[in-house]
Amino acid sequence: MNENWIVESLKWTFELWNEKQAEIWELISLTPQEFKGGHIWSLALTINDALQAIGYGLLVLFFAISICKSTINFRDFRRPEQGLRFFIRFVLAKTAVTYGIELMNTVFNICGGIVSSIASKMGNMTSAVSLPEELETAINEVGFLASIPLWLITIIGCLVIIVLSFVMILTVYSRFFKLYMYTSFAPIPLSSFAGETTSFMGKAFIKSYAGVCLEGAVIVLACIIFSAFVSDGDITLASPDSTAVVQVLSYLAEIIFNMLVLAGLG
């Protein structure tokens, strides 16, 4: 190992981070239908179709429970407004189960529009982390014995950055898996809208699904903020009079801190 190994390792690690950030933007821009060629989406639709029959059965069950709890006797149905209220609820719940995919696609497209608007207003979100020239010069001027602590700092710093880069990718991938699971399972919670006392399950499902869709906007905003920290030169270097070890440690510590914040927000 030598000083050049340290420089090359840091450069390679920063390039890997930049590549993963660019990959995140590509993944965020994809719809569930486009992700992995649409094969997983087709599977989710197949499961959704299979669960629709169960959803219709639960629809009737929840509707019957709602009627039993909301009416003392069947004479209440002689009032037109009471019967109409139940009829409208049943029709809306059946529509939600039948056209649940279209409903969920609409929610996803609205959230996707928010992501696109943020990205277009703020410009390129990919962060360009690089090794400053003055820091590279300081590393190359270090002697063999003095470079030994740099090896340890470089190895630890590079490992942490590599792990964080894959954590960010994992966050994006997990978002798609959540979307597919929500799509597959949708008929069951949507059928709860048939009952007044069970509708809270459907409302919670829609809110939770919207939250997963908006995770894309959170990831985009986090990456844009991180990019601003890097591109605007907010990462300060240690004094040139400091040793190379102190300079590298200070630079990596601030970079990794910002990456940790990004990973935590994502």
Folded structure, characterized:
This protein has 266 residues and is mainly α. It has one domain. 79% of the residues lie in helices and 0% in strands. The chain is built from 9 helices and no strands. Helix 4 packs parallel to helix 8. The longest helix is centred in the middle third of the chain and has 42 residues. It is elongated. The model has no long low-confidence stretch (mean pLDDT 81).
Structure at a glance:
With 266 residues, this protein is mainly alpha-helical. The chain contains nine helices and no strands.
Name a few traits of the molecule.
9 helices, mainly alpha, 79% helix, 266 residues
Strand and helix layout:
Layout: H1 3-29, H2 39-70, H3 80-98, H4 100-122, H5 133-140, H6 144-185, H7 187-190, H8 199-231, H9 244-265
Helix pairs in contact: 1-6, 2-3, 2-6, 4-8, 6-8, 6-9, 8-9
Helix content: over 70%
Low-pLDDT segments, ≥5 res = none
Biggest sheet overview: none
Return the domain count. 1
Structural class: mainly alpha
- Gyration radius from CA atoms, angstroms: 27 Å
Helix-strand string = HHHHHHHHH
